[in-house]
Specification:
The structure holds 3 protein chains of 3 kinds.
Chain A lengths: L1 E4 L3 H11 L3 E4 L5 H6 L7 E4 L9 E2 L4 E4 L4 H6 L1 H6 L1 H8 L4 H6 L2 H6 L8 H6 L3 E6 L2 E6 H4 E3 L2 E2 L6 E7 L6 E8 L10 E9 L5 E9 L6 E2 L1 H7 L6 H14 L10 H29 L1
Parallel strand pairs in A: 1-3, 2-3
Antiparallel strand pairs in A: 4-5, 5-10, 6-7, 6-10, 8-9, 11-12, 12-13, 13-14
Helix pairs in contact in A: 10-11, 11-12
Chain B lengths: L4 E8 L2 E8 L4 H8 L18 E4 L2 E4 L12 E3 L12 H8 L9 H14 L5 H7 L11 H14 L1
Parallel strand pairs in B: 1-5
Antiparallel strand pairs in B: 1-2, 3-4, 3-5
Chain C lengths: L12 H6 L14 E7 L5 E7 L1 H5 L3 E6 L7 E2 L6 E2 L5 E2 L5 E7 L2 H10 L1 E6 L6 H5 L22 E3 L2 E7 L4 H6 L3 E9 L11 E7 L2 E6 L4 H12 L6 E5 L15 H11 L3 E4 L2 H7 L6 E9 L5 E13 L5 H4 L3 H4 L8 E10 L13 H19 L3 H8 L5 E2 L5 E2 L3 H13 L11 E10 L6 E7 L5 E4 L9 H13 L7 E3 L17 H29 L6 E4 L2 E4 L2 E7 H10 L5 E6 L23 E11 L6 E11 L6 H21 L4 E2 L2 E2 L4 H4 L11 E5 L21 H13 L10 H13 L1
Parallel strand pairs in C: 1-15, 13-14, 17-18, 23-24, 30-33
Antiparallel strand pairs in C: 1-7, 2-6, 2-8, 3-7, 4-5, 9-10, 10-18, 11-16, 12-13, 12-15, 16-17, 19-20, 21-29, 22-23, 22-28, 25-26, 26-27, 29-30, 31-32
The chains are: A alpha+beta, B alpha+beta, C alpha+beta.
Chain lengths: 289, 158, 760
């Protein structure tokens, strides 16, 4: 196995073009090194992008732009993001421990394609797009379309994920990420739920986005649940109906962490909790504004 | 399936090292097998227990899942770099004084995470200590005397 | 007191915080080879063929060993059922089949992968139910030929490893006159010790002797077991112990040592072996999974007329210490609470799963869980307050346990209930929706097994304690034994050095198990120190020209009573003695004498009495999340009787640590078996408690010094895990208003209970 150090995006893209699917992109390595050690991957080369400055940085002018190398620690401690993407910040703080957050990157979390990726659900409710670059050119893909199956994405072997763009939380909005794990930290999500609502002054939900992780082969938007919330005032009946739709949309599995039955049975209660939290956030933001 | 060798240059406990490592080699293996710094422990090899925690550029990392080849130019700090020949660091001394050490296998990793914590937050609350230690397992102590040690050590400084 | 009762630091603390302490896995010697194991990939099957040709041909490979090369026969601690390597069949996933020694561990691993193994897999005997079913396949078809240690006799039959059945004959009659019959069935999973340092061995072979360096809890058993496996004399094996990265019972038997020793002899090179993390999980003797059925005959006024108890616990593929552990239920029912009579049947069962064994508290945590859940059930059924029912049922001093042994100080338990009440008044705990409180009590033992210790006075006035007692983290050796020795000569503990174990040099010791070190080894150290003190006085008497009885030993010197100026230092005494009568040293041995019991009560009890009992009451307050089913432990109170706290900080650390392990067992940790195979294979899926999960335990220390113990000390470290699952389960059941009859109390279990409570 070769170790290729990329000093720039162009160098990284050139290496990817050269190696194709015989290489793996190494950023923080918290997933890749584990897969490598377990023999799950045996690439001809590691393309290390950890020193590519152009892949770093958070930009919060208008649309939010997050460099692929943004670490979970950076996301979790950014005061700008706290305001614009509170659910993303909450999710980043739940990934592993400090050691994994310090080196694990957002780009890695997305490209790894885990059904349990905590940061993806909040990005889905923020309408995120990923920006991919290759020698063939650039393209942007909706995050929803980027994820196609367990551990699979539409990223071509020669493509580098450069950045993620997402819509900040509107001033009349609230959002939250709720994670169910067994312990207070370190757990892969048993279920993760992100909800973003916009609430009009009269209390009517004008827009709703709901996304789940660990409830199917990929994290996904639950549009059925969203439509039950839009136009409602988040009354018990509407939230219950949204909960039923959420359970319908999920296709959870049994694994060593929890049963499919458990994953399903917490969803509607979790949604109700998330909706209340969103409305509370929206209200307090409205008061501040 | 032989791995290419990669030359890196980094500091370990403020001493310059030019190392040649394999492409997939972990920092933990480099420290223990090449530099014979065996204070850093191998607990699980999957980034779950934190026994292998060291500081890279001041941040705690699980050295068992960090590629040495990616560390060219970095500053690595291990448990051997805490304190000096004569005296222990405040945290080390507090661990001794408050019975925060039992079997001691998690201790080096604990100390590295906590060293980073007090460099970021000079007087952490018990909850901040517990939260910072999420990635460090201890099966012996139930954590309380470790939390006590940090509070004792940082209280002295304040 | 100069040392006892003080929270002195561990002698190894500085080395451990510096990272300079050498653990077993840190050892290396020039020229060593690395060995790895081919383990069974399946739970059960017949070995059709093993072809090692390709593995042997791999450059860097020195040796490949299969059952055909090894010593024949089967060995074990109690039942001789374990082959050196699997020969004809495999009995569990992870069972060793072949060994490879090579220049590096990587080469050894590659060679293991090249061994061509063919196993005809068969459906595993995966569960207790399957193993006990009529006509079940036998895990070991030749079980009847297996010998036992000392020819011990106990109920064995096919998949039944051992049975202990105590039936006084009056139980059915008691049920006939009962107002109520309360019946429960409890289930619990396995628990993995989850120490962080994996098992290892570094063996050399020279001039007919094996030297094995390890981190092991019981070097002398290891010596004897390696000798048994390799069919050599115990004196041909030397065990040298190093710092132990946790054990909790998992490092009491032979692990990799005999393999490394055999390879070292065959290769003519030192051989190092270390398990990887997944192997460790497969090879650790987890606390057994079990099913406990308890029926009680109860009178309206709350009197328990009889218990009828049936315990079935999983031995896994080999017996280990299961036949001895089959006696434990005899001490857990009808022991602290009065019961007119009791029938107790315990069966230990072979299955095609990894062998179970010793983990802190052995079967105690699940037996107390069953007993104390059942007490809650009876109280609720009778409409009596759960705590009041316990106090009313609590037996008095001298109460006979089911083995006929009197508990002479059982009233300590009543005092413990009172002290917990003072700290956390029962009526005020667990109030509010989905909050609950639980209480549980237990009596536990202090392991009585033998110790020998030598104490010597060095010529600089310090003491040396020479012992093969091991400190796997508790501080019993690195603080307790040093403090006990120091106290005998009025020294501070920092004036005492204690050795690491070496079976060639240090006297026999039964290892760190069952909280025995401070009590049993400490007693040997105290007695040896007393002899040293006598020699000191004798020598000083001639130096000071005074009678020994007129001398006082304190603060490192000896002086004439009332005349402090007439004194000599211990260093002077040591030097004088060495050059005149010879160096001062003394050796003492101790085994706790068996308490009185009725040897005829139950045949087949290998563990017949309950020496040096200690008493425990735990109280837990919890809160349940109705959406996720998650349990938060808001408060945890422990009242523990320790005889005498030699080192209060160390006691606190044992209690806090044991409660953390107990909380993990009760709430978070998973070691599920599916078709005989462990499901959770990483720390993440396993779910060990983290710093953010474990509350600060409130500790109430009770001291009732015990005459036989050193300065009154009894065992401390093992029992605080025993009542935890019971206290938590009682609190959760109280919070949700429905019984909790299985462990772990997963979020699913909690949500089910909430639903049941809503339906009721």
């Amino acid at each position: 196995m070769q170790f290729c150090r990329a000093g720039s995006i162009d160098e990284a893209v050139a290496e990817l073009e050269h190696w194709g699917d015989d290489c793996r992109v190494l950023a923080g390595g918290t997933d890749l090194m584990l897969q490598f050690r377990r023999g799950e991957v045996a690439p001809g080369a590691l393309v290390h992008i950890g020193r590519v400055e152009a892949l770093r940085g958070l930009s919060t002018n208008g649309v939010t732009r997050l460099g692929a190398l943004a670490t979970h620690s950076e996301l979790g401690s950014s005061t700008d993001l706290c305001e614009r993407h509170p659910a993303l910040v909450q999710s980043a703080r739940t990934v592993g421990g400090w050691q994994t957050q310090a080196v694990g990157t957002l780009g890695g979390n997305i490209c790894n394609g885990s059904p349990a990726a905590d940061t993806i659900a909040p990005l889905l409710v923020a309408g995120a797009q990923v920006e991919l670059r290759s020698a063939r050119g650039d393209r942007r893909v909706d995050l929803e379309d980027f994820l196609v199956g367990r551990r699979t994405t539409v990223r071509a072997p020669d493509e580098l994920l450069v950045a993620i763009e997402a819509d900040p939380l509107p001033s009349d909005g609230g959002e939250v990420y709720l994670k169910v794990g067994r312990r207070g930290a370190m757990d892969v999500a048993i279920v993760g739920l992100a909800v973003r609502l916009r609430v009009a002054e009269d209390g009517v939900v004008s827009s709703a986005r709901v996304a789940l992780c660990s409830a199917g082969p990929v994290p996904f938007r639950a549009t059925g649940a969203e439509s039950m919330l839009v136009g409602s005032r988040a009354e018990v009946e509407a939230v219950d109906a949204a909960g039923v739709a959420l359970v319908d949309a999920a296709s959870p599995i049994d694994d060593g962490r929890a049963t499919a039955r458990y994953r399903s049975r917490v969803l509607s209660g979790l949604l109700a909790r998330a909706v209340s939290a969103c409305i509370e956030v929206a209200r307090s933001r409205g008061e501040q504004a | 399936m032989t791995d290419d060798m990669v030359a890196i240059s980094c500091t370990v406990n403020e001493r310059q090292h030019d190392l040649v490592v394999t492409a997939g080699e972990t920092l933990l293996d480099s420290l223990r097998n090449r530099l014979l710094l065996t204070g850093t422990k191998e607990g699980c090899m999957e980034g779950e227990c934190g026994a292998c925690t060291v500081l890279v550029d001041g941040l705690p990392v699980d050295s068992c899942i960090l590629a040495s080849a990616s560390l060219d130019g970095c500053a690595v700090r291990t448990v051997e770099g805490l304190g000096d020949r004569e005296s222990l660091s405040h945290l080390q001394q507090a661990f001794v004084d408050t019975a925060a050490v039992q079997c001691g296998f998690c201790t080096p990793g604990m100390l590295m995470t906590l060293t980073a914590l007090v460099e970021h937050v000079p007087s952490p609350t018990p909850d901040e200590v517990r939260s910072a230690l999420s990635g460090n397992l201890c099966r012996c102590t139930g954590y309380q005397q470790i939390v006590d040690a940090v509070v004792a050590a940082t209280g002295d400084r304040a | 007191m100069s040392a006892v009762g003080l929270s002195v630091p561990r002698s190894d603390a500085e080395a451990k915080v510096r990272g300079s302490a050498t653990f077993g896995v840190d050892l290396a010697v020039p020229g060593m080879l690395h060995a790895r194991i081919l383990r069974s990939p399946v739970a059960a099957g017949t070995i059709r063929s093993i072809d090692t040709t390709a593995a042997r041909a791999l450059p860097g490979v020195h040796d490949v060993v299969t059952a055909a090369d090894g010593p024949g026969g089967r060995t074990g601690v109690i039942v001789f059922d374990i082959p050196f390597l699997a020969r004809d069949y495999v009995a569990y996933e992870g069972e060793p089949i072949a060994l490879v020694a090579a220049e590096t561990a990587q080469i050894a691993d590659a060679a293991v992968a090249l061994i061509d193994l063919h196993i005809d897999e068969v459906a595993p005997v995966a569960t207790l139910e399957q193993a006990m079913a009529p006509g079940a396949r036998l895990v070991h078809p030749s079980w009847a030929d297996f010998g036992t240690a000392g020819g011990a006799q106990f109920g064995r039959d096919g998949n039944l490893v051992a049975e202990v059945f105590s039936d006084p004959g009056d139980v059915d009659a008691a049920f006939e006159v009962a107002d109520l019959v309360i019946e429960d069935t409890y289930r619990n999973p396995r628990q993995y010790q989850a120490y962080l340092e994996p098992k290892m061995a570094l063996a050399t072979y020279e001039a007919g002797r094996y030297t094995i360096q390890v981190s092991h809890q019981f070097p002398f058993r290891l010596r004897d077991r390696v000798a048994q496996v390799l069919q050599v004399a115990p004196s041909a094996v030397r065990i040298i112990g190093h710092h132990i990265g946790g054990g909790f019972g998992a490092k009491l038997d032979v692990g990799l040592e005999a393999f490394a020793a055999m390879l070292a002899r065959r290769c003519g090179r030192p051989v190092r072996m270390v398990n990887n993390h997944d192997e460790e999980r497969l090879a650790a003797p987890c606390r057994a999974n079990a099913e406990i059925r308890v029926r009680s005959a109860v009178r309206r006024d709350g009197a328990i007329l009889a218990h009828d108890v049936d315990v079935v616990f999983d031995s896994g593929a080999y017996a280990n210490n299961g036949p001895a552990l089959s006696s434990i239920p005899m001490f857990m029912f009808g022991s602290i609470y009065r019961a007119g009579t009791a029938r107790i049947r315990t069966r230990n069962i072979y299955t095609n799963t990894a062998p179970t064994g010793a983990y802190r508290g052995v079967n105690g945590p699940y037996l107390v869980f069953a007993m104390e859940r059942h007490m809650d059930h009876i109280a609720n059924e009778l409409g009596i307050d759960r705590r009041a029912f316990r106090l009313a049922s609590l037996a008095d001093d001298g109460h006979l346990m089911r083995n006929g042994q009197p508990l002479e100080e059982l009233s300590i338990l009543r005092e413990a209930f009172d002290l917990v009440e003072e700290r956390a008044p029962w009526a005020e705990q667990g109030k509010g929706p989905l909050r609950g409180v639980g209480i549980a009590a237990a009596v536990w033992l202090t392991n009585p097994m033998p110790a020998q210790a030598t104490v010597k006075l060095n010529e600089d006035g310090t003491l040396g304690v020479i012992t093969s007692a091991t400190d796997n983290g508790s501080g019993a050796v690195t603080t307790g034994l040093r403090q006990i020795a120091a106290e005998g000569l009025g020294l501070t503990a920092d004036r005492v050095v204690v050795t690491m174990p070496d079976t060639d040099l240090t006297g026999y010791d039964a290892g760190s198990q069952g909280s025995r070190t401070t009590h049993v080894v400490g007693r040997a150290v105290r007695d040896a120190t007393t002899s040293v003190r006598d020699l000191v006085l004798e020598t000083a008497a001639s130096m000071l020209e005074a009678a020994p009885d007129d001398l006082v030993v304190e603060e490192g010197s000896v002086h004439v009573a009332g005349v402090p100026a007439r004194s000599v230092t211990l260093a002077q005494v040591g030097q004088t003695a060495t050059s005149s009568r010879g160096p001062i040293a003394a050796t003492s041995s101790y085994v706790t004498p068996s308490p009185p019991y009725d040897p005829l009560c139950t045949p087949g009890m290998l563990f017949s009495a309950w020496p040096t009992p200690t008493y425990h009451v735990h109280l837990a307050e919890v809160e349940v999340d109705p959406v996720t089913g998650q349990v938060t432990v808001d408060r945890y109170v422990v009242c523990q009787e320790v005889g005498r706290a030699i080192n209060p900080d160390a006691v606190q650390g044992q209690v806090q640590g044991a409660v953390a392990q107990g909380l993990g067992y009760a709430l978070w940790e998973r070691m599920d078996l599916q078709e005989g195979v462990y499901v959770q294979r990483s720390f993440e899926t396993h779910g060990l408690p983290l710093a953010c999960d474990v509350p600060a335990v409130e500790m109430i220390l009770m001291e009732h010094p015990e005459e036989a113990g050193p300065y009154g000390a009894k065992g401390v470290a093992e029992p605080p895990i025993v009542p935890v699952a019971a206290a938590i389960a009682n609190a959760v059941a109280d919070a949700v208003g429905a019984p909790i009859d299985q462990l772990p109390i997963t979020a699913d279990v909690v949500l089910d209970a909430i639903e049941r409570a809503a339906c009721a």
